[in-house]
Specification:
Layout (H helix, E strand, L loop, with lengths): L11 E7 L5 H4 E8 L9 E8 L2 H9 L9 E2 L3 E8 L10 E5 L2 H7 L7 E2 L6 E3 L6 H5 L2 H12 L13 E5 L4 H12 L4 E6 L4 H6 L4 E4 L5 H9 L8 E4 L4 H5 L10 E4 L7 H12 L10 E4 L6 H12 L7 E6 L3 H9 L6 E5 L2
Parallel strand pairs: 9-10, 9-12, 10-11, 12-13, 13-14, 15-16
Antiparallel strand pairs: 1-2, 1-4, 3-5, 3-7, 3-16, 5-6, 6-8
């Protein structure tokens, strides 16, 4: 697919769109005559080269009714491509970029990433590092920014991860976990332990984890208590990519007093799981609640975070871990791989 200028754009394009509420394999279809979008104020038109899949998206497809999610909707939010219409912004035709269409915008407009052309906001794209592929670039925005925010953005009572800190990541082989390991080590963490299955030990250690704990061999909180309850072994931060109520409930044994338990994961679309998590974190300490600060990170896209990530990528300090790349016509197969829970890194669609 050749790059075109704004003046030479085709009138229609191919796009994968969700037409109703349900599972992606049932409701996401390839449409071949979708109008090429016109960028609105503050947007640019990008010819998409690759797009990455995220679990939260297919869960939202099945969870949100049409009143909250405009359909038909082009699916997914992470993209990499070439600017073909700067639309009055500082971007130039031919600029290679990566970026994101945030979920709240996608729900209102039906915009998305798995299409030949899309219109992200000009201030939510950044230059693609020259040392990575289109597929690697597409895997950066959502999970990379989530890990960056969870580790480094300070709160009222916490300055963010500091050099010399000790960190535990529950779900180290998740895509957010893989980014978090790398970001933590480059920012000076002295020790990073993670949980994952034994099949992923080599993967997490290859990106910097010092120790991996196999959660399948016994209750994880008990394993953490056995290995990290001594004062010099406790953690300065726990990052939970799974949202395990028991890991939080028993965290005083292995998380230093005054240090935060940061959560980014969990199946919030399961009423049972959500209720269990809320019940655990909401219980007052006087009634037996956990005496540790609980922080749930609600991801917010920003150009500043994207710039920080791409700088680290350009310097060779961090990288996207890509599990698999699917051609444009195999989006259903890509979702099948993502939903299997067996992906070791990002699942990406190449748009050609």
């Amino acid at each position: 697919m050749a790059t075109t200028t704004a003046a030479g754009l085709p009138p229609t394009q191919r796009a994968w769109r969700a037409h109703s509420w349900g599972k992606p394999e049932d409701v996401v279809k390839l449409d071949k005559d979708v109008p090429v979008p016109h960028p609105e104020k503050g947007e640019v038109l990008v010819q998409t080269k690759a797009a990455a899949l995220n679990p939260v998206y297919y869960k939202l497809l099945a969870f949100l009714p049409n009143v909250l999610f405009k359909r038909p909707a082009v699916v997914e939010s992470d993209l990499a491509g070439v600017v073909v219409d700067p639309n009055g912004s500082s971007w130039k035709v031919g600029d290679e970029v990566l970026g994101i269409i945030p979920a709240d915008e996608a729900f209102k407009t039906g915009k998305g990433a798995i299409a030949e052309y899309t219109t992200p906001k000009a201030d939510l794209i950044v230059h693609k590092p020259k040392n990575i592929s289109w597929e690697e670039a597409a895997g950066v925005p959502l999970t990379g920014q989530t890990a960056y925010e969870a580790l480094l953005e300070p709160t009222k009572n916490w300055p963010g991860l500091q050099p010399g800190d000790r960190l535990f990541i529950n779900g180290g082989s998740t895509t957010v976990g893989l980014w978090a390991i790398q970001i933590a080590k480059v920012k000076g963490a002295s020790f990073v332990a993670v949980s994952c299955s034994s099949r992923n030990f080599d993967l997490v250690k290859s990106v910097g984890a010092n120790e991996a704990i196999d959660y399948t061999t016994g209750p994880l909180p008990a394993q953490l208590e056995a290995s990290f309850s001594a004062p010099d072994k406790q953690f300065d931060l726990v990052l939970d990519c799974i949202a395990s109520p028991d890991v939080f409930k028993r965290s005083p044994a292995y998380l230093k007093e005054g240090k935060p338990f940061v959560c980014i994961g969990g199946d919030i679309f399961s009423a049972v799981d959500a209720a269990k998590l809320v019940g655990t974190i909401a219980r007052p300490r006087i009634l037996g609640g956990t005496p540790r600060e609980f922080r749930y990170v609600l991801f917010k896209a920003s150009q500043d975070k994207l710039l920080a990530l791409t700088k680290l990528i350009e310097e060779g300090n961090i990288k996207t871990i890509v599990d698999s790349v699917y051609p444009f016509h195999q989006v259903p197969e890509a979702y099948k791989k993502l939903k299997s829970g067996r992906a070791r890194g990002k699942v990406v669609v190449k748009i050609d």
